[in-house]
Design brief:
The chain is mostly helical. The chain has 8 helices and no strands.
Length: 199
């Protein structure tokens, strides 16, 4: 959030939203062993951090690099017309497409196992957000790997030069701790007590 927030408004931008998603993930991790229902929120927070980081990394100087290609073109035309007329759609490209674009543009180096994990994370998140009556049965052993892949991707994207220059030293330090913290929590999950997040 911005320093000029008043009591009347809550303001976020794409970068502070990623940090907030990581904060949420960090607060949920210690609860996962005792409350399996918190996995839903861990998956949503992890996905939110990756998607937000993708938007940050793809924004480019004009800000609409994560939009659908047709919307990017319309935004460019709208900007060329000095933003006169109705604002074009700002619908984002789908998550798998954003991953591909970030990889193609060099903002993310994604090993194949991590890509598969992130695509699975996206499937789970979509099921949780677009809730339908019923239940879920998800193999527990694979879930920590999804969170670890999300933490690595978020960190790599946010610390890429094109995003890092917009972050404070405090935000950079916090983001740098996330992958190791998520991995350590997964290793400690068999122990009775789990440490509080360092961020």
């Amino acid at each position: 959030m911005h320093d000029d927030d008043s009591a009347d408004y809550v303001r976020f931008d794409q970068r502070s939203d990623v940090v907030a998603s990581l904060d949420l993930l960090g607060s949920i991790l210690p609860m996962l062993k005792q409350n399996a229902g918190q996995w839903k929120w861990a998956i949503i927070a992890a996905h939110s951090s990756v998607q937000g980081a993708l938007v940050c990394a793809l924004a480019n100087t004009h800000g609409w690099g994560a939009f659908l290609k047709k919307n990017q073109k319309k935004y460019s035309e709208w900007a060329d017309a000095d933003f006169v007329g109705p604002q074009p759609s700002d619908w984002l490209a789908e998550f798998p497409t954003l991953l591909d674009w970030a990889t193609e543009q060099g903002a993310l180096s994604l090993p194949e196992p991590d890509k598969r994990a992130l695509l699975r994370l996206n499937e789970y998140r979509t099921g949780f957000v677009h809730f339908k009556p019923g239940g879920w049965s998800i193999e527990a052993a694979g879930l920590p790997l999804l969170l670890e892949a999300a933490a690595r991707a978020t960190c790599d994207l946010m610390l890429h030069d094109r995003v890092r220059i917009h972050l404070s030293d405090e935000e950079i330090a916090k983001i740098q701790t996330v992958p190791d913290f998520v991995t350590s929590q997964n290793k400690r999950s068999a122990q009775p007590e789990i440490a509080a997040p360092p961020f």
